Amino acid sequence: MANICTTQIKIFGHPKSIKKIEEFMENCNDDAQLIDEYGSEGDSTIDKIGCKWIQREDYYTEEDNQYFLQTETAWYPPNIMIENIYKMLMKFPENQDIDSDCYIEGRYWDENFSPIGVFGIDGDGKYISDETDVDVDWDDEYYWDNQVEPEFEMLDV
Question: Which of 18, 61, 120, 129 could form a disulfide with 105 if both were Cys (CB 3.0 to 4.6 A apart)?
């Protein structure tokens, strides 16, 4: 059985493009629709979104120019899907302006914190990431604050 990878995706763009994502997510009945909307052509789900399966856990508009999506996937984040969301955002003329704040960033972690990572989309629309492993002391009641979060803060893309 695959380890579960939690991915938090922060999407920034012109309010029109964020509204399109929000409307889709609110009307999306199942995760197959998510794959159809933001997946690439391919024979398997790995080819389409970058992981074996995906499940939306949380999603909402944080501000009119920012959307939050949290997923659970098998092993790794849905990197191909994240690239495809960025490509969709860039189809909006408002996001093509040189001064546009259109980008995607986020973080992910395996249930055993091996790996944890941060990611972003570079200027060419490519997924980039930095990751490490955390050997968690499970006896530490505050292991997230004391061990995991400091490792996230050291990662950079």
Answer: 120
Residue 9: count other Cβ atoms within 10 Å of its Cβ. 21
From 3.40.50.2000, 3.30.160.340, 3.30.70.1270, 3.40.640.10, which CATH number describes the 4-154 domain? 3.30.70.1270
Give the model confidence (pLDDT) of 60-91 as tens digits: 999 999 999 999 999 999 999 999 999 999 98
State the Rg of the chain over Cα.
Answer: 16
Q: How far apart are CA 62 and CA 78, in angstroms?
A: 21
In sequence order, the 6+-apart residues with CB closer than 8 A to the CB of 27 are: none
Nearest to 76 by CA among 107, 55, 51, 58: 51
Residue 47 token pair: 């080819």
> How do the domains of the chain map onto residue ranges?
4-154
Cα–Cα distance, 66 to 102 (Å, whole number)? 9
